[in-house]
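Assemble and predict.
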Amino acid sequence: MKRSFVKMAAILGILMLTGTSSVIAGEEVLTKGAFFPSVKLAVPDDAAHKKYLGLSGSGKFDIPDIAAHVVIVEIFSMYCPHCQKEAPAVNELYRIIENNPMARGKVKLIGIGAGNSPFEVDYFRETYAVPFPLFPDKDYAIHDRIGGVRTPFFYGVAITKGKPAEIFFTYEGKFETADSFLELILKESGLK
Amino acid sequence: MRTKISLIGMAVILSICMIAGNAFGVSSVYENNIYNTGMLKPVDSVLKVKAGDPAPDFALPSVKNGMVSLSRFKGKKNVVLSFIPAAWTPVCSDQWPGYNIARQVFEKYDAVLLGISADNIPTLFAWTNQMGDLWFPILSDFWPHGALAQKLGVLRSDGTTERAIFIIDKNGIIRYIDVHDINRRPPLEDIVRELQKL
Protein backbone atom coordinates (compact mmCIF):
# COMPACT_ATOMS: atom_id res chain seq x y z
CA MET A 1 0.00 0.00 0.00
CA LYS A 2 2.82 2.32 1.03
CA ARG A 3 4.77 1.47 -2.18
CA SER A 4 1.67 2.15 -4.28
CA PHE A 5 1.30 5.55 -2.66
CA VAL A 6 4.95 6.40 -3.39
CA LYS A 7 4.55 5.28 -7.01
CA MET A 8 1.37 7.33 -7.38
CA ALA A 9 3.10 10.39 -5.90
CA ALA A 10 6.00 9.95 -8.32
CA ILE A 11 3.68 9.66 -11.32
CA LEU A 12 1.73 12.72 -10.19
CA GLY A 13 4.97 14.64 -9.73
CA ILE A 14 6.09 13.87 -13.27
CA LEU A 15 2.68 14.76 -14.67
CA MET A 16 2.57 18.02 -12.75
CA LEU A 17 5.97 18.98 -14.11
CA THR A 18 4.69 18.25 -17.61
CA GLY A 19 1.62 20.35 -16.88
CA THR A 20 3.65 23.47 -16.14
CA SER A 21 5.81 23.32 -19.25
CA SER A 22 6.21 26.48 -21.32
CA VAL A 23 4.93 25.02 -24.52
CA ILE A 24 1.71 24.17 -26.24
CA ALA A 25 0.62 20.64 -25.43
CA GLY A 26 2.33 18.10 -27.61
CA GLU A 27 5.30 20.31 -28.46
CA GLU A 28 8.67 20.56 -26.73
CA VAL A 29 10.58 23.75 -26.13
CA LEU A 30 14.15 23.58 -27.41
CA THR A 31 16.65 23.76 -24.59
CA LYS A 32 20.28 24.69 -24.03
CA GLY A 33 22.59 22.52 -26.12
CA ALA A 34 20.00 21.79 -28.82
CA PHE A 35 20.39 23.09 -32.35
CA PHE A 36 18.05 25.81 -33.54
CA PRO A 37 16.29 24.37 -36.62
CA SER A 38 17.33 25.52 -40.05
CA VAL A 39 15.00 28.30 -41.20
CA LYS A 40 14.63 30.12 -44.47
CA LEU A 41 14.20 33.82 -43.84
CA ALA A 42 14.00 36.43 -46.60
CA VAL A 43 17.08 38.65 -46.91
CA PRO A 44 15.78 42.08 -45.86
CA ASP A 45 15.23 44.70 -48.56
CA ASP A 46 16.27 47.37 -46.09
CA ALA A 47 19.96 48.15 -46.73
CA ALA A 48 20.68 48.94 -43.07
CA HIS A 49 19.19 45.64 -41.92
CA LYS A 50 21.08 43.76 -44.61
CA LYS A 51 24.33 45.37 -43.48
CA TYR A 52 23.52 44.71 -39.82
CA LEU A 53 23.10 41.00 -40.54
CA GLY A 54 26.16 40.88 -42.82
CA LEU A 55 24.10 39.68 -45.77
CA SER A 56 24.10 40.61 -49.42
CA GLY A 57 21.90 40.08 -52.43
CA SER A 58 18.40 38.71 -52.11
CA GLY A 59 16.72 35.36 -51.58
CA LYS A 60 16.78 33.37 -48.36
CA PHE A 61 19.22 32.99 -45.51
CA ASP A 62 19.55 30.87 -42.39
CA ILE A 63 20.51 32.05 -38.91
CA PRO A 64 24.12 30.69 -39.10
CA ASP A 65 24.59 33.00 -42.14
CA ILE A 66 24.33 36.05 -39.87
CA ALA A 67 27.65 37.78 -39.24
CA ALA A 68 27.77 37.42 -35.45
CA HIS A 69 29.08 35.29 -32.61
CA VAL A 70 25.70 35.25 -30.98
CA VAL A 71 22.16 35.86 -32.28
CA ILE A 72 19.25 36.63 -29.98
CA VAL A 73 16.03 35.46 -31.62
CA GLU A 74 12.91 37.03 -30.16
CA ILE A 75 9.69 35.13 -30.87
CA PHE A 76 6.94 37.73 -30.72
CA SER A 77 3.49 38.50 -32.09
CA MET A 78 1.80 41.80 -32.84
CA TYR A 79 -1.28 40.24 -31.22
CA CYS A 80 0.50 39.56 -27.92
CA PRO A 81 -0.07 42.16 -25.16
CA HIS A 82 3.23 41.34 -23.41
CA CYS A 83 5.15 41.75 -26.70
CA GLN A 84 3.50 45.12 -27.21
CA LYS A 85 4.42 46.27 -23.70
CA GLU A 86 7.91 44.80 -23.99
CA ALA A 87 8.70 46.34 -27.40
CA PRO A 88 10.36 49.52 -26.02
CA ALA A 89 12.53 47.40 -23.69
CA VAL A 90 13.62 45.14 -26.57
CA ASN A 91 14.43 48.24 -28.65
CA GLU A 92 16.51 49.42 -25.70
CA LEU A 93 18.29 46.05 -25.64
CA TYR A 94 19.25 46.58 -29.30
CA ARG A 95 20.58 50.07 -28.51
CA ILE A 96 22.69 48.97 -25.56
CA ILE A 97 24.11 46.06 -27.59
CA GLU A 98 25.13 48.55 -30.28
CA ASN A 99 26.70 50.83 -27.66
CA ASN A 100 28.55 48.09 -25.80
CA PRO A 101 32.06 47.48 -27.23
CA MET A 102 32.00 43.91 -25.96
CA ALA A 103 28.71 43.15 -27.75
CA ARG A 104 28.63 45.39 -30.82
CA GLY A 105 29.13 43.38 -34.00
CA LYS A 106 29.23 40.14 -32.02
CA VAL A 107 25.67 40.02 -30.68
CA LYS A 108 22.84 40.54 -33.16
CA LEU A 109 19.12 40.69 -32.50
CA ILE A 110 16.28 39.54 -34.76
CA GLY A 111 12.56 38.95 -34.23
CA ILE A 112 10.26 36.30 -35.68
CA GLY A 113 6.53 37.09 -35.66
CA ALA A 114 4.68 33.89 -34.74
CA GLY A 115 1.52 33.67 -36.83
CA ASN A 116 2.11 37.17 -38.18
CA SER A 117 1.82 38.07 -41.87
CA PRO A 118 4.37 40.41 -43.48
CA PHE A 119 1.77 43.20 -43.16
CA GLU A 120 1.32 42.50 -39.44
CA VAL A 121 5.08 42.39 -38.82
CA ASP A 122 5.47 45.72 -40.65
CA TYR A 123 2.64 47.16 -38.59
CA PHE A 124 4.35 46.09 -35.36
CA ARG A 125 7.69 47.47 -36.60
CA GLU A 126 6.18 50.85 -37.46
CA THR A 127 4.06 51.08 -34.31
CA TYR A 128 7.04 50.53 -32.00
CA ALA A 129 9.80 51.90 -34.28
CA VAL A 130 11.65 48.59 -34.00
CA PRO A 131 15.23 49.20 -35.19
CA PHE A 132 16.31 45.57 -35.68
CA PRO A 133 15.15 43.12 -38.39
CA LEU A 134 11.79 41.36 -37.93
CA PHE A 135 10.59 38.43 -40.00
CA PRO A 136 7.07 37.01 -40.52
CA ASP A 137 6.11 33.42 -39.70
CA LYS A 138 2.55 33.63 -41.00
CA ASP A 139 1.63 29.95 -40.79
CA TYR A 140 3.58 29.21 -37.58
CA ALA A 141 5.95 27.04 -39.64
CA ILE A 142 8.98 28.14 -37.58
CA HIS A 143 7.04 28.52 -34.33
CA ASP A 144 5.88 24.90 -34.53
CA ARG A 145 9.47 23.69 -34.94
CA ILE A 146 10.84 25.57 -31.95
CA GLY A 147 8.40 24.23 -29.42
CA GLY A 148 5.34 26.45 -29.97
CA VAL A 149 6.65 28.73 -27.25
CA ARG A 150 4.59 31.45 -25.62
CA THR A 151 5.46 35.00 -26.58
CA PRO A 152 7.64 36.85 -26.04
CA PHE A 153 10.34 34.20 -25.93
CA PHE A 154 14.07 34.62 -26.47
CA TYR A 155 16.48 32.06 -27.86
CA GLY A 156 20.20 32.82 -27.60
CA VAL A 157 22.14 30.88 -30.26
CA ALA A 158 25.87 30.59 -30.85
CA ILE A 159 27.04 30.96 -34.43
CA THR A 160 29.83 28.82 -35.84
CA LYS A 161 30.41 29.03 -39.58
CA GLY A 162 29.16 25.98 -41.41
CA LYS A 163 27.44 24.49 -38.36
CA PRO A 164 23.87 24.66 -37.08
CA ALA A 165 23.19 27.42 -34.55
CA GLU A 166 23.45 26.01 -31.04
CA ILE A 167 21.12 27.22 -28.32
CA PHE A 168 22.93 28.44 -25.21
CA PHE A 169 20.13 30.39 -23.61
CA THR A 170 16.33 30.51 -23.44
CA TYR A 171 14.11 33.04 -21.71
CA GLU A 172 10.33 33.38 -21.57
CA GLY A 173 8.40 36.57 -20.95
CA LYS A 174 9.42 40.06 -19.97
CA PHE A 175 12.98 40.69 -18.82
CA GLU A 176 13.86 42.91 -15.86
CA THR A 177 16.07 45.48 -17.57
CA ALA A 178 17.82 45.56 -20.92
CA ASP A 179 21.17 46.01 -19.15
CA SER A 180 20.80 42.97 -16.92
CA PHE A 181 19.48 40.93 -19.84
CA LEU A 182 22.52 41.77 -21.98
CA GLU A 183 24.77 40.99 -19.03
CA LEU A 184 23.12 37.56 -18.79
CA ILE A 185 23.54 36.95 -22.52
CA LEU A 186 27.23 37.92 -22.45
CA LYS A 187 27.83 35.64 -19.49
CA GLU A 188 25.86 32.66 -20.83
CA SER A 189 27.43 32.93 -24.28
CA GLY A 190 30.96 33.06 -22.90
CA LEU A 191 31.61 36.47 -24.50
CA LYS A 192 32.30 37.80 -20.99
CA MET B 1 -0.88 -6.68 -10.15
CA ARG B 2 -4.30 -5.01 -9.88
CA THR B 3 -2.68 -2.04 -8.11
CA LYS B 4 -0.14 -1.74 -10.94
CA ILE B 5 -2.88 -1.75 -13.61
CA SER B 6 -4.95 0.85 -11.77
CA LEU B 7 -1.86 3.05 -11.31
CA ILE B 8 -1.09 2.90 -15.03
CA GLY B 9 -4.74 3.63 -15.83
CA MET B 10 -4.76 6.60 -13.50
CA ALA B 11 -1.54 7.93 -15.02
CA VAL B 12 -3.00 7.65 -18.53
CA ILE B 13 -6.21 9.44 -17.53
CA LEU B 14 -4.29 12.18 -15.73
CA SER B 15 -1.95 12.61 -18.72
CA ILE B 16 -4.93 13.10 -21.04
CA CYS B 17 -6.55 15.58 -18.63
CA MET B 18 -3.36 17.56 -18.23
CA ILE B 19 -2.53 17.69 -21.92
CA ALA B 20 -6.08 18.83 -22.68
CA GLY B 21 -5.96 21.50 -20.02
CA ASN B 22 -2.49 22.82 -20.78
CA ALA B 23 -3.14 24.73 -23.96
CA PHE B 24 -3.21 28.51 -24.14
CA GLY B 25 -3.10 31.55 -26.36
CA VAL B 26 0.30 32.22 -27.83
CA SER B 27 0.84 35.24 -25.57
CA SER B 28 2.37 34.56 -22.16
CA VAL B 29 -0.10 37.04 -20.68
CA TYR B 30 -2.71 34.25 -20.42
CA GLU B 31 -0.44 31.56 -19.03
CA ASN B 32 -2.43 28.58 -17.71
CA ASN B 33 -5.76 30.37 -18.16
CA ILE B 34 -6.65 29.38 -21.70
CA TYR B 35 -8.94 26.42 -22.27
CA ASN B 36 -7.84 24.16 -25.08
CA THR B 37 -10.74 23.66 -27.46
CA GLY B 38 -8.67 21.53 -29.81
CA MET B 39 -9.27 21.81 -33.53
CA LEU B 40 -12.89 22.70 -34.26
CA LYS B 41 -15.11 22.40 -37.31
CA PRO B 42 -13.95 25.43 -39.32
CA VAL B 43 -17.49 26.80 -39.89
CA ASP B 44 -20.63 25.51 -38.19
CA SER B 45 -23.44 27.81 -39.29
CA VAL B 46 -25.09 29.20 -42.42
CA LEU B 47 -25.06 32.91 -43.14
CA LYS B 48 -28.47 34.60 -43.24
CA VAL B 49 -27.23 37.87 -44.72
CA LYS B 50 -24.95 38.78 -47.61
CA ALA B 51 -22.90 41.74 -48.78
CA GLY B 52 -25.29 44.39 -50.10
CA ASP B 53 -28.01 43.66 -47.51
CA PRO B 54 -28.97 46.25 -44.91
CA ALA B 55 -27.47 45.25 -41.57
CA PRO B 56 -30.09 44.40 -38.94
CA ASP B 57 -30.04 46.94 -36.12
CA PHE B 58 -29.09 45.76 -32.66
CA ALA B 59 -28.53 47.10 -29.17
CA LEU B 60 -26.23 45.08 -26.94
CA PRO B 61 -24.76 45.66 -23.48
CA SER B 62 -21.04 46.34 -23.42
CA VAL B 63 -18.32 45.86 -20.82
CA LYS B 64 -17.58 49.58 -20.38
CA ASN B 65 -19.79 51.60 -22.71
CA GLY B 66 -23.37 50.77 -21.66
CA MET B 67 -25.80 49.75 -24.39
CA VAL B 68 -24.35 50.07 -27.86
CA SER B 69 -26.60 50.13 -30.91
CA LEU B 70 -25.69 49.95 -34.57
CA SER B 71 -28.10 52.77 -35.44
CA ARG B 72 -26.07 55.28 -33.42
CA PHE B 73 -23.35 55.09 -36.09
CA LYS B 74 -25.65 55.45 -39.10
CA GLY B 75 -24.60 58.35 -41.31
CA LYS B 76 -21.52 58.92 -39.12
CA LYS B 77 -19.14 55.97 -39.08
CA ASN B 78 -18.34 52.76 -40.89
CA VAL B 79 -18.65 49.83 -38.49
CA VAL B 80 -16.49 46.72 -38.20
CA LEU B 81 -18.03 43.90 -36.19
CA SER B 82 -15.51 41.36 -34.90
CA PHE B 83 -17.25 38.24 -33.61
CA ILE B 84 -15.02 35.93 -31.62
CA PRO B 85 -16.23 32.45 -30.58
CA ALA B 86 -15.53 32.46 -26.84
CA ALA B 87 -13.51 34.08 -24.09
CA TRP B 88 -10.52 32.22 -22.61
CA THR B 89 -9.90 30.16 -25.72
CA PRO B 90 -6.89 30.06 -28.06
CA VAL B 91 -6.87 32.28 -31.16
CA CYS B 92 -9.61 34.55 -29.69
CA SER B 93 -7.22 35.57 -26.93
CA ASP B 94 -4.68 36.63 -29.57
CA GLN B 95 -7.02 38.59 -31.83
CA TRP B 96 -8.41 41.70 -30.12
CA PRO B 97 -5.03 42.67 -28.55
CA GLY B 98 -3.74 43.11 -32.12
CA TYR B 99 -6.66 45.38 -32.98
CA ASN B 100 -5.85 47.29 -29.81
CA ILE B 101 -2.68 48.66 -31.41
CA ALA B 102 -4.41 49.24 -34.76
CA ARG B 103 -6.77 52.05 -33.67
CA GLN B 104 -5.30 54.44 -36.23
CA VAL B 105 -6.06 51.97 -39.04
CA PHE B 106 -9.76 52.00 -38.15
CA GLU B 107 -9.82 55.76 -37.60
CA LYS B 108 -8.06 56.37 -40.92
CA TYR B 109 -11.05 54.83 -42.66
CA ASP B 110 -13.59 56.54 -40.40
CA ALA B 111 -14.56 53.21 -38.87
CA VAL B 112 -15.43 52.05 -35.40
CA LEU B 113 -14.67 48.54 -34.23
CA LEU B 114 -17.11 46.59 -32.08
CA GLY B 115 -15.93 43.32 -30.53
CA ILE B 116 -18.76 40.85 -29.94
CA SER B 117 -19.08 37.43 -28.33
CA ALA B 118 -21.88 35.34 -26.86
CA ASP B 119 -20.17 35.34 -23.44
CA ASN B 120 -21.72 37.23 -20.54
CA ILE B 121 -20.45 40.61 -19.33
CA PRO B 122 -18.56 39.42 -16.21
CA THR B 123 -16.65 36.83 -18.27
CA LEU B 124 -15.81 39.38 -20.95
CA PHE B 125 -14.76 41.86 -18.26
CA ALA B 126 -12.28 39.42 -16.67
CA TRP B 127 -10.93 38.18 -19.99
CA THR B 128 -10.47 41.51 -21.74
CA ASN B 129 -8.79 42.94 -18.63
CA GLN B 130 -5.88 40.60 -19.44
CA MET B 131 -5.49 42.35 -22.79
CA GLY B 132 -4.82 45.80 -21.38
CA ASP B 133 -7.05 48.80 -21.92
CA LEU B 134 -9.01 48.09 -25.09
CA TRP B 135 -10.01 51.25 -26.97
CA PHE B 136 -13.05 49.68 -28.66
CA PRO B 137 -16.34 48.55 -27.07
CA ILE B 138 -16.79 44.87 -26.21
CA LEU B 139 -20.40 43.77 -26.63
CA SER B 140 -22.13 40.79 -25.11
CA ASP B 141 -24.60 38.84 -27.26
CA PHE B 142 -25.30 36.58 -24.30
CA TRP B 143 -29.03 37.08 -23.74
CA PRO B 144 -31.29 36.23 -25.47
CA HIS B 145 -28.44 33.89 -26.18
CA GLY B 146 -26.62 34.74 -29.42
CA ALA B 147 -29.66 36.60 -30.79
CA LEU B 148 -27.62 38.88 -33.06
CA ALA B 149 -25.35 36.03 -34.17
CA GLN B 150 -28.47 33.99 -34.92
CA LYS B 151 -29.96 36.83 -36.96
CA LEU B 152 -26.77 37.11 -39.02
CA GLY B 153 -26.28 33.36 -39.29
CA VAL B 154 -23.04 33.05 -37.34
CA LEU B 155 -24.26 31.19 -34.24
CA ARG B 156 -22.65 27.76 -34.05
CA SER B 157 -24.49 24.67 -32.90
CA ASP B 158 -22.71 24.72 -29.51
CA GLY B 159 -23.87 28.27 -28.68
CA THR B 160 -20.59 29.98 -29.48
CA THR B 161 -20.27 32.25 -32.48
CA GLU B 162 -18.17 32.00 -35.59
CA ARG B 163 -14.93 33.95 -35.88
CA ALA B 164 -16.43 36.50 -38.24
CA ILE B 165 -15.86 40.00 -39.54
CA PHE B 166 -18.70 42.17 -40.87
CA ILE B 167 -18.00 45.58 -42.37
CA ILE B 168 -21.01 47.88 -42.50
CA ASP B 169 -20.85 51.24 -44.28
CA LYS B 170 -22.25 54.54 -43.06
CA ASN B 171 -25.56 53.83 -44.83
CA GLY B 172 -25.99 50.69 -42.77
CA ILE B 173 -25.27 48.36 -45.70
CA ILE B 174 -23.16 45.24 -45.18
CA ARG B 175 -20.16 45.59 -47.50
CA TYR B 176 -17.99 42.64 -46.46
CA ILE B 177 -18.39 39.37 -44.58
CA ASP B 178 -15.61 36.98 -43.62
CA VAL B 179 -16.75 33.92 -41.72
CA HIS B 180 -13.25 32.75 -41.03
CA ASP B 181 -12.00 29.28 -40.15
CA ILE B 182 -12.60 29.33 -36.39
CA ASN B 183 -9.15 27.82 -35.79
CA ARG B 184 -7.33 30.68 -37.47
CA ARG B 185 -7.09 34.43 -37.01
CA PRO B 186 -8.17 36.66 -39.90
CA PRO B 187 -5.16 38.69 -41.03
CA LEU B 188 -5.32 42.41 -40.30
CA GLU B 189 -4.60 43.28 -43.93
CA ASP B 190 -7.91 41.73 -45.03
CA ILE B 191 -9.80 44.24 -42.91
CA VAL B 192 -7.60 47.10 -44.10
CA ARG B 193 -8.11 46.12 -47.75
CA GLU B 194 -11.89 46.09 -47.35
CA LEU B 195 -11.95 49.38 -45.43
CA GLN B 196 -9.95 50.96 -48.26
CA LYS B 197 -12.78 50.05 -50.65
CA LEU B 198 -15.41 52.03 -48.73
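Chain A touches chain B through 39 residues (CB under 8 Å).
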